[in-house]
Design a protein that fits this description.
The structure holds 2 protein chains of 2 kinds. Chain A is built from 10 helices and 13 strands. By secondary structure, chain A is α/β, with parallel strands linked by helices. Chain A folds into 3 domains: 2-88 and 247-276, ATPase, nucleotide binding domain (Nucleotidyltransferase, domain 5, 2-Layer Sandwich); 96-240, Nucleotidyltransferase, domain 5 (2-Layer Sandwich); 279-325, no CATH class. In chain A, the strands form 3 sheets. Chain A has a 5-stranded mixed β-sheet, with helices on both faces. In chain A, α3 crosses α9 and α7 (185-203) crosses α8 (224-234). Chain B is an alpha/beta fold. Chain B folds into 2 domains: 3-159, 3-Layer(aba) Sandwich (Rossmann fold), CATH 3.40.50.11890; 184-328, Rossmann fold (3-Layer(aba) Sandwich), CATH 3.40.50.11900. Chain B has helices spanning 12-25, 38-47, 54-66, 89-92, 94-101, 115-131, 138-162, 166-175, 197-200, 209-215, 228-239, 247-258, 274-289, 305-328; strands at residues 3-6, 29-32, 72-74, 77-80, 108-109, 112-114, 189-194, 218-221, 264-270, 294-299. In chain B, the strands form 3 sheets. Chain B has a 4-stranded parallel β-sheet with strand order 2-1-3-5, with helices on one face. Chain B has a 4-stranded parallel β-sheet with strand order 8-7-9-10, with helices on both faces. A two-stranded parallel ribbon of chain B has the order 4-6. In chain B, α11 packs across α12 and α12 (247-258) runs parallel beside α13. The relative contact order of chain B is 0.11. The chains are: A alpha/beta, B alpha/beta.
Chain lengths: 326, 329
């Protein structure tokens, strides 16, 4: 069996997906990044290798997510793609006629507008993380509730309270105030769902033509409270596709397949052995000019694998030449 | 010899050759602050209130770096350069801001330029008053001003006729060196980059945006490459009469390029810029009307490179896939 792997390393979670040669999902993983992207990629590779049937050969691998370059050098990616393209490719695979994609992840949210299968417009949240998964996580733990129960409880609301969703700091103080006034928890929870949806549609959805079918994906799509709030506001049914939480990884795998097939080349995949390699990261300040950039350095088994973080490409060049010598 | 310091920020990018020629003809020596670095931004933003926009913070940082290196610092207050169009209040009050937050600064040369209120006569008087510090001979002032104007015209025509950026024309005038952007490779897409020169050409604050765009295979056109009439028509089409002084760089260029053959338009704006927030919205609405790909990137001092790169890559991917689709249709 031929396998194409997709790795999506986001701020909060790391997702892996393995597709077979017919683009069917063979296995997927959804892990918490826990601030340790390298360790999670290694662990993810170990776990996904176990899901694969015997005799499976990896033909290509793609990475995406905010740590896509890091993940790319770790696994030896054939394509390193931004999240927008990866999510769009993933969603069109399951819902070919999709016209709008809502994607809400741990720290960012996106809206992607497609027409006839092609991305024509998109937006990502800019300076503010209000209304993303991390905030919901944080509020759930403040109410000592599991995030998995959040949405279910929100659905029991009869009389949602109004919460300011523009800013997480204000939303939180608003929620505490409503609690202290004696409002029911489920009403506050659903009020929060509505606030986040309002914030999403007023910020990144501003001026976008939201046409059905609307696909909702990313970790937050697990939350039925948010799904209902979207449907109530937009008066449209949302499609939450299967494997919505690993859609970016699926997209990355599909892009890897496309890359390998269109160029008829061999994969650069380093093999599942990377799980047992020891990777070290360190950083230093470059003093070559007044910018004093922080350069991050990734070492794999004692060799420099990558360096980046500079305002110029001085260290990126050096790491390339180091690799050639090695 | 008297030394005049010119901060390499804000209007430097469009007027430096003119200013330099003027002061040199008056017998002064001109020094500029070095390009923006992390130090410039940090020192500038430590002095001003947090709400100030990034370009003004950067400007203050450049003034600080000129302390001790010159006898005067040139900080004009450019209120208006045409009738009934006004500059942002932060430009109007620039000399006062500098005096307040950089008390150790050498004396300022701070002419008030207000064509809308004072007309041409007021403009000439302001120039004579400025030149008083160097000479009492009105003929010498006239000669310096004319040379400066000639130089400015040459500078402007270079960008328009040869299709090069302001920063390229600047480095050509300064070092006589053609910069590496000339002779670009045949590209997959043409992108119009719109915004104020102090945002487009300050490579530190925009994270080498132009260079990244070219690396992704784009041919880049910018506001100063368009003809003045084209920019004026752009403004007229979008809003009628310009309200802001540098409206042509945003609304004008936006209107012009959205109606041209370019594949997409990207605007870079500074976080906290009042005029831009209005102008960009006008351009965005027009982009939707003519359904041309458009993206606005907002930058501030905390902007991480990752978000910017992701948006840029996604935008280029979108164009590429869209071209493939339109090609098939």
């Amino acid at each position: 069996m031929e396998i194409y792997l997709g790795v999506d390393v986001g701020s909060v979670t790391t997702k892996l997906a393995a597709l077979d040669e017919n683009e069917g999902l063979v296995g997927s993983l959804y892990l918490r990044t826990q601030g340790k992207p390298i360790v999670m990629v290694q662990q993810g590779m170990r776990d996904i290798a176990e899901c694969l049937p015997a005799g499976a050969v990896v033909r290509g691998v793609g990475t995406t997510g905010s740590a896509r370059y890091l993940a790319g050098v770790l696994v030896g990616a054939d394509v390193v793609k931004n999240e927008i393209t990866a999510h769009a490719v993933g969603a069109t695979h399951y819902v070919p006629d999709v016209q709008t994609i809502f994607e809400i992840g741990g720290q960012d949210s996106k809206i992607i507008i497609l027409r006839q299968g092609v991305v024509v417009d998109f937006a990502m949240n800019t300076v503010c993380a209000a209304g993303t998964g991390s905030f919901l996580d944080q509020q759930a733990s403040r109410l000592s509730m599991k995030i998995e129960d959040f949405g279910r409880q929100a659905l029991e609301s009869q009389m949602p309270v109004r919460i300011a969703g523009r800013c997480t700091v204000f939303a939180e103080s608003d929620m505490i105030h409503k609690q202290q006034m004696g409002h029911r928890t489920e009403d506050i929870l659903y009020g929060l769902c509505e606030a986040l949806v309002r914030n999403y549609l007023n910020n990144i959805g501003l001026g976008k033509e939201i046409l059905p079918p609307v696909v909702f994906q990313g970790g937050v799509a697990f939350n039925p409270g948010i799904v209902r709030a979207f449907e109530d506001t937009l008066k449209t049914k949302l499609i939450v596709p299967p494997y919505h939480e690993v859609m970016g990884a699926i997209g990355a795998a599909l892009l890897a397949k496309e890359e390998i097939e269109s160029h008829r080349r061999e994969t650069q995949f380093r093999g599942f052995g990377i799980s047992d390699m020891s990777f070290h990261t360190s950083s230093f300040e470059c003093k070559a000019c007044a910018n004093i950039c922080e350069i991050a350095q990734i070492m794999g088994d004692g060799k420099v694998v990558a360096r980046w973080g500079g305002r110029c490409d001085m260290w990126e060049r050096t790491s390339a030449s180091v690799e050639q010598q090695a | 010899m008297t030394t005049v310091g010119i901060p390499q920020a804000l209007l430097y990018y469009q007027y430096y050759p003119m200013w330099k020629t003027f002061f040199q003809h008056l017998g002064a020596q001109v020094v500029t602050s070095p390009p923006t670095t992390r130090g410039t931004v940090t020192s500038g933003s430590a002095r001003v209130v947090a709400e100030t926009c990034l370009p003004v913070k950067v400007f203050c940082g450049h003034v600080i770096s000129l302390v001790g290196k010159c006898d005067y610092v040139f900080v004009p207050s450019i209120r208006s350069i045409e009738r009934d169009a006004y500059n942002c209040s932060k430009f109007l009050g620039l000399p006062d801001v500098v005096k307040a937050v950089v008390p150790e600064c050498p004396p300022l040369l701070d002419p008030d330029i207000d064509i809308s209120k004072e007309g041409k006569r007021g403009f000439y008087l302001a120039i004579y008053a400025l030149a008083r510090r160097f000479t009492w001979n009105p003929l010498k002032v006239k000669e310096a001003a004319e040379a400066a104007w000639q130089c400015h015209m040459r500078f402007q025509s270079q960008t328009r006729e040869e299709g090069i950026t302001l920063s390229c024309a600047l480095s050509r005038m300064e070092d006589g060196m053609p910069s590496d952007e000339e002779g670009v490779n045949p590209s997959s897409a043409t992108i119009a980059l719109i915004g104020h020169p102090y945002v487009l050409y300050d490579e530190y604050i925009n994270h080498r945006f132009l260079q990244r765009l070219r690396q992704l295979g784009a041919q880049v056109v910018t506001p100063e490459m368009a003809q003045i009439q084209e920019l004026d028509r752009g403004v007229t089409r979008l809003i009628g009469k310009p309200y802001w002084t540098y409206e042509d760089e945003v609304t004008g260029a936006g209107g012009h390029y959205l109606d041209s053959q370019v594949d997409g338009v990207i605007a870079i704006i500074a976080f906290g810029c009042g005029p831009d927030s209005v102008m960009i919205d006008v351009v965005k609405r027009y982009a939707q009307r003519v359904s041309k790909p458009f993206m606005a990137i907002t930058i501030d001092e905390h902007t991480a490179e990752a978000g910017l790169v992701t948006r840029l890559e996604a935008f280029m991917d979108m164009l590429r896939r869209r071209q493939g689709w339109e090609g098939k249709a």
